[in-house]
Design a protein that fits this description.
Length: 477
């Protein structure tokens, strides 16, 4: 990996880099004396995410790619070529590398000890100016890429939630349809057993439950099943015919003991078995139809939430109800919040605000998703929305997680900063959420103590005439 070059070559290479273009010769010579030339083959790693940062690198020739680990994937962020520097921000902080860097092609770099570079900061304004120019140029180039990456991350969250939520009702519809076909076959068989419907059987065929659509609690359901089973035995249903099973199906669809007694009142004794099977099969079919209807309504609700979440077919900027976006987000994240108790407290006088609905929904997604992760999927999330004195809306989202340490709170909105284990978070969610809120002319603040963390998002009623500039991300490596 190490290569050789003369000190004069290293000075010339540093001079062609914008960062060192205006550094006085005497200082550049000192830096060149400690610079170590390195050669990287394609695919060779220069910096690895999580490693300690003690030096920075100047790209002399070739191309490097910056990536960040997320889940099981390595997300590409950007590529850099000759004249660029890598790793300066993490090195100045003496922290850990926040991203990985590897060679795309045959690449030559100069490794510079951070202590030698620090000395240049005191040498004059030329180096400081060059450093600011270099970092600012990179930041401007990365900002749009980061926005797009976070949108894709939000889309991934949406897709995962959508797939999970649609799978459950779709599977329910499939199971219910299969059972409905079986119930229909059983009803035909029972009808054949009853033979020709004579006038005495008219009451049976036309009978309907009197409490359909009124579910019972577990204790009442058990008592009613026992009572209906007793009626079936009184009517002459043989034990082998399973009176308890039939009674359970009749109970589930709203039949009462009196309903069953009335339906069987005119049924000949030799037809009771077939009549009960008829009633049970009809009850089963009714129950399955109700399940299919509920599942279909669930799918419709999810599709509606997705359209609302993404603001499909609507203007980018519009008047919107903040709580509608929060509710849509909760529905989409329902798979992740199954063991979380969510409480909502929305003020009745909340105004609509002006904004980008899909972007604000990214904010709610990030905050709720982070809250669920902080509690390991179980706990309580409380959401409060109130009108501000200025006519806007303030949304507070609190969780019962372990809390955030005081020294960590100021770093939460920095790009690539994450409290999650390496590979489980990009560190972009809160940063982009902060930028979105600032773009709306609002503010996002956090308060935390052991057992409680609250994020408060304040949004004005209208967008500012001149959109404020959101903070830009720094060099991740």
């Amino acid at each position: 990996m190490t290569s050789t070059s003369s000190e004069a070559d290293r000075v010339a290479q540093l001079r062609t880099t914008p960062l060192f273009a205006e550094v006085p010769e005497e200082h550049l010579l000192k830096l060149a004396a400690v610079a170590v030339p390195l050669h990287l083959a394609p695919g060779e790693v220069l910096l690895r995410e999580g490693d300690p940062a003690e030096e920075l690198f100047v790209v002399v020739r070739g191309e490097l790619e910056i990536t960040k680990h997320s889940g099981n994937a390595e997300i590409p962020l950007t590529r850099v070529g000759p004249g660029s520097i890598q790793g300066e921000m993490a090195a100045f902080e003496r922290g850990q590398r926040k991203a990985s860097v590897h060679a795309v092609s045959e690449t030559d770099v100069l490794r510079l000890p951070i202590d030698a570079v620090r000395e240049l900061l005191a040498s004059g304004p030329e180096f400081v100016t060059g450093l600011m120019r270099t970092v600012t140029t990179r930041l401007q180039g990365m900002e749009e890429a980061l926005r797009q990456r976070e949108k894709l991350a939000g889309l991934g969250t949406l897709a995962a939630g959508l797939a999970h939520e649609l799978n459950n009702p779709a599977a329910a519809i499939r199971r219910s349809a299969e059972r409905l076909a079986e119930a229909n076959a059983a009803r035909k068989e029972a009808a054949a057993g009853i033979a020709v419907v004579a006038p005495p059987l008219a009451a049976l065929v036309s009978a309907q439950p009197s409490e359909a659509g009124h579910p019972l609690d577990a204790l009442d359901r058990s008592d009613r099943t026992d009572a209906i089973a007793a009626v079936l035995r009184e009517a002459g249903l043989p034990e082998h015919a399973g009176p308890d099973d039939s009674a359970g199906m009749l109970t589930a669809t709203g039949w009462t003991p009196e309903d069953v007694r009335t339906a069987l009142a005119t049924t000949p004794p030799d037809q009771v078995d077939g009549a009960v099977r008829w009633l049970a099969s009809v009850a089963t079919a009714d129950e399955l139809l109700a399940e299919i209807q509920m599942a279909a309504e669930r799918i419709s609700a999810i599709v509606g939430a997705v359209k609302g979440y993404a603001y499909l077919d609507q203007a980018p900027v519009q008047r919107l109800a903040v709580t509608k976006g929060i509710d849509d987000t909760l529905l989409i994240l329902a798979h992740k919040l199954e063991k979380v108790r969510v409480t909502r407290d929305y003020a009745p006088d909340l105004p609509e605000i002006e904004g980008w609905g899909s972007e604000l929904n990214q904010v709610w997604t990030n905050l709720l998703d982070n809250a669920a992760d902080a509690m390991d999927g179980s706990g309580e999330i409380s959401i409060r929305a109130a009108r501000t004195d200025a006519g806007g809306v303030a949304v507070t989202i609190c969780d019962t997680g372990p809390g955030i340490s005081p020294e960590t709170v100021p770093k939460l909105f920095e790009p690539f900063f994450t409290t999650k284990p390496m590979g489980l978070g990009t560190g972009l969610g809160l940063h982009l959420s902060h930028n979105i809120v600032v773009r709306h002319g609002g503010a996002i603040e956090v308060e935390s103590e052991p057992g409680k963390t609250c994020f408060e998002v304040t949004l004005p009623a209208t967008l500012p005439p001149t959109l404020p500039s959101a903070s830009l991300p720094s060099d991740p490596s």
